[in-house]
């Protein structure tokens, strides 16, 4: 097959490098599959193009519109994913490996589009937390908001997940309204280039939202500014070099790093050779060693087992590893494909040698070339280190391949201390059925890991496993793992936005954030709000109801009718002894029910459904003879479908003295 010449996508055009083409070779047979270069690109102009076109266009869209863009991109990629699967074989990946990369990547877009529409407002500003009262009379209040950074997200990605690695960073970036320049690792950049082509050809993204560099980044870093973000995945040494670039320091450019780490998996002290957790641990270690030929930043590099189970664990692992056939990734019988390149294989062999100095290889020959000579195939290699406290390399050196080291621990505390010797990891898994041990792990080791997965007989069937970063959960870890954080649902979006504390009169804060804030001038309802359609309800439109007295008869009737005859409502003597009430009080639910009775307009109209309450608080008890009154105010609105929208109402229930009795948000679905 003739090699493809890869193209960069710069300033709205596909352009091949002007010279110095590098050869990218198939991991399977060593043939040149692609030629690549970024020579001749004007990197400063690319950044400007993104800032001048991509950023403003994306920032004009609401979170929901950006989420719909992700949805359309996911559909475009799905429709042409066979093209990506085909190319992926040359990276050494089996079909199963490619599924994690390609479908996993598309799935990340799918999760983010859903979360974007459910959890973010149909707006361009994101409110963070509650309104803070900063003054006695409420004329000066505080609120935190996030706004989109006005720069560019530079994504520098690793070779092992050419599609997922790009999409997991793009999803939160686009949702945040920030344009991106993607620089994939050269070795597998032909697959990233193909995925970028599919996205651009679908014509979904605004001009300047996405650019691609296939090759070196030249003087790109020289042109970064304070509004830019660099998000890096790769080796600790490159991360260290890039994060100390003078422009990154001078401009305080946000730098997010996710780098190799010595992830551990612990078989709990409660395990025995017959316990389900023992089998689950063995299966997971082998899976993590062999999926993607162990080229996963989350792979298990250190297996910690109770000392008495060391031999049993070693035997069980060897028995399972013997079943792993290494070979042509296209062959369905193949269990493990190739490393990405022969140079990467040389690196893995070198690292195994260093680790073996701390112990011994107990399975696999790192110098063998299973399947063929020209490809980058290697056997899985299991090492054993009997004295992990005397060892250094096992806790420090990562062989980025199908390599793991088994080591003993004496007790739970020893296991935790050994896990922490990795000096920070992306993930640790713990195979235990003992919740006390699980608690100890989190208290004594939580701060060393970005994620901890507890896997046991009850969760195993549905568990997503040790090594899968889920878009809902944060991915990244402290220390050796880079100190960064990606994804984690909407948390990941905020890495591409700036949080600003706003202070001012509630009228100003409400106008900026397009939501009702108590203390702002309200618009008294000229007709009942339930008679108005979604679009005819302005923020701050308020109905004040009549008041209604709550009698002892009401309380008793409500108690017998609902069956809630709790002493505080029914037993005068017992209620009098209650230090909070000092006598009988109305049910909280009675207050809610009466409040609805006060504010509801009964006739059919645009309100289609009441679907819940948020933030409900009963603030002050109501005694028989007291009266309640309700203020119902339009707080914010989200159009959910062209003809339907969610209205969030601020409901404030007060007594005759004007004191708050109860407060909550009511959610209704209204016709638009
Ligand atoms: P690198 O750190 O060398 O490369 C990662 C990315 O950085 C690639 O896109 C690379 O581009 C780019 N890069 C390298 N140098 C520069 C530079 N000076 N300026 C700008 N970009 C740069 O990692 P590798 O991919 O070579 O893998 C090496 C090791 O890293 C592995 O053996 C493994 O230990 C670890 N690793 C960790 C991963 C993780 O997810 N945590 C993933 C992959 C690897 P280019 O390819 O063009 O050089």
TrEMBL record:
Molecular function terms from GO: oxidoreductase activity, acting on the aldehyde or oxo group of donors, NAD or NADP as acceptor
CDD domains: ALDH_MaoC-N
Keywords: Oxidoreductase
Region of interest: Disordered: 460-488
Domain Aldehyde dehydrogenase span(s) in chain numbering: 30-498
Coiled coil: none
Domain of life: Bacteria
Domain called MaoC-like: residue spans: 539-651
InterPro entries, alphabetized: Ald_DH/histidinol_DH, Ald_DH_C, Ald_DH_N, Aldehyde_DH_dom, HotDog_dom_sf, MaoC-like_dom, PaaN-DH
Biased composition regions of type Gly residues, renumbered to the chain: 476-488
Full protein name: Bifunctional protein PaaZ
Organism from which the protein derives: Terricaulis silvestris
Gene: paaZ
């Amino acid at each position: 097959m003739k090699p493809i010449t890869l193209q960069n996508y710069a300033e709205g055009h596909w352009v091949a490098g002007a010279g110095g083409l590098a050869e990218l070779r198939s991991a399977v047979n060593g043939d040149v599959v692609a030629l690549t270069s970024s020579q001749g690109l004007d990197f400063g102009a690319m950044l400007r193009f993104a800032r001048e076109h991509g950023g403003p266009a994306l920032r004009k869209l609401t979170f929901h519109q950006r989420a719909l863009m992700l949805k359309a991109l996911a559909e475009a990629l799905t429709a042409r994913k066979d093209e990506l699967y085909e190319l992926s074989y040359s990276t050494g990946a089996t079909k199963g490996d490619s599924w994690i990369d390609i479908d996993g990547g598309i799935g990340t877009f799918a999760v983010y589009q859903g979360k974007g529409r459910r959890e973010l407002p149909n707006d361009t500003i994101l409110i963070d937390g509650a309104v803070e009262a900063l003054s006695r009379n409420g004329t000066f209040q505080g609120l935190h908001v996030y706004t989109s950074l006005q720069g560019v997200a530079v994504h520098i990605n690793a070779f092992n997940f050419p599609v997922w690695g790009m999409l997991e960073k793009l999803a939160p970036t686009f949702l945040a309204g920030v344009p991106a320049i993607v620089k994939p690792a050269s070795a597998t950049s032909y697959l990233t280039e193909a995925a970028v082509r599919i996205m651009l050809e679908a014509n979904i993204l605004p001009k300047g939202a996405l650019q691609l560099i296939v090759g070196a980044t030249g003087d790109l870093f020289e042109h970064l500014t304070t509004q830019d973000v660099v998000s890096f995945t790769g080796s600790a040494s490159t991360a260290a070099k890039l994060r100390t670039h003078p422009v990154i320091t001078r401009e305080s450019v946000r730098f997010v790093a996710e780098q190799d780490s010595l992830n551990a998996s612990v078989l709990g002290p409660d395990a025995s050779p017959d316990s389900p957790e023992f089998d689950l641990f063995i299966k997971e270690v082998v899976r993590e060693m062999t999926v993607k030929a162990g080229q996963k930043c989350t792979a298990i590099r250190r297996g910690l087992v109770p000392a008495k189970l060391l031999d049993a664990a070693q035997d069980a692992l060897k028995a399972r590893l013997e079943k792993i056939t290494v070979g042509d990734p296209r062959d369905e019988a193949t269990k493990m494909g190739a490393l990405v390149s022969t140079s990467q294989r040389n690196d893995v062999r070198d690292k195994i040698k260093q680790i073996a100095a701390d112990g011994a290889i107990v399975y696999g020959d790192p110098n063998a070339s299973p399947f063929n000579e020209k490809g980058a195939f290697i056997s899985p290699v299991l090492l054993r280190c009997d004295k992990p406290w005397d060892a250094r390399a096992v806790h420090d050196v990562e062989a980025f391949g199908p390599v793991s080291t088994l080591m003993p621990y004496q007790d739970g505390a020893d296991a935790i201390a050994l896990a922490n010797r990795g000096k920070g990891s992306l993930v640790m898994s713990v195979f235990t059925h003992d919740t006390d041990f699980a608690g100890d792990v989190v208290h004594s080791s939580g701060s060393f890991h970005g994620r901890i997965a507890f896997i046991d007989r009850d969760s195993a069937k549905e568990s997503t496993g040790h090594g899968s970063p889920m878009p809902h959960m944060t991915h990244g870890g402290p220390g050796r793992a880079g100190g960064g954080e990606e994804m984690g649902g909407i948390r990941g979006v905020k890495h591409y936005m700036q949080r600003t504390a706003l202070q001012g009169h509630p009228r100003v804060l409400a106008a900026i954030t397009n939501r009702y804030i108590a203390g702002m001038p309200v618009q008294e309802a000229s007709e009942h709000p339930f008679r108005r359609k979604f679009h005819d309800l302005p923020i701050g439109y308020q109905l004040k109801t009549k008041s209604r007295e709550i009698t002892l008869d009401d309380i008793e009737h409500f108690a017998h009718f609902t069956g809630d005859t709790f002493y505080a409502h029914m037993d005068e003597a017992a209620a009098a002894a209650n230090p909070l009430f000092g006598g009988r009080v109305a049910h909280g639910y009675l207050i809610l029910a009466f409040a609805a009775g006060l504010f509801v307009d009964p006739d059919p109209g645009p309100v289609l459904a009441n679907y819940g309450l948020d933030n409900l608080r009963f603030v002050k008890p109501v005694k028989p003879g007291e009266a309640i009154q309700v203020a119902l105010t339009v707080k914010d609105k989200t159009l959910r479908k062209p003809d339907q929208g969610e209205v969030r109402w601020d409901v404030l229930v007060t007594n005759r003295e004007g004191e708050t009795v109860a407060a909550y948000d009511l959610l209704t679905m209204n016709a638009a």
